[in-house]
Amino acid sequence: MKKLTKRDKQTAHFLKWITCYPGWWDMICTPNDEYMDRSMMHLLIKRLEQERLYEMIFVLLNVHRNASFMEGFFDYMSYNIIAENLSGSLKNREQVIKDILKFFD
Asked: Does residue 87 sit in helix, strand or coil?
């Protein structure tokens, strides 16, 4: 019998979570869901974090990227990440500049 991998266990955990929270799963996957708003987004992200379903946070953010409550989110995150890296080590600052230049290549 083949031993379960770490990823197999993560997938089983994820599928159990979907079974326990089918309404939330529908909200995560449905753009323009009538119940999705800023506070629901906050709640879902917290719950996904607690369950260590980190990939689903990015799915959630992407599915709802055009919602009015998401306006400015990606700019906010980009600037915060850049600011954090610029205030870190010289190596981080150099990498930020390299990444910016790479976009324009």
From this structure: coil
The single-letter DSSP state of residue 88 is: S
Instruction: Walk along the chain (105 residues) and give the pLDDT tens digit of each residue.
Output: 788 899 889 999 999 999 999 999 999 999 999 999 999 999 999 999 999 999 999 999 999 999 999 998 988 888 888 888 778 777 777 887 787 678 677
**How would you label 37-74 residue by residue, b for 16+ Cβ within 10 Å and e otherwise?**
eeeebeebeeebeeeebeebbeebbebbeebeeeeeee
Centre a 10 Å sphere on the Cβ of residue 101 and count the other Cβ atoms it contains: 9
Structure-block tokens of residue 39: 């506070």
Q: Residue 37 contacts by C-beta under 8 Å, 6 or more apart in sequence?
A: 69
pTM summary value? 0.78
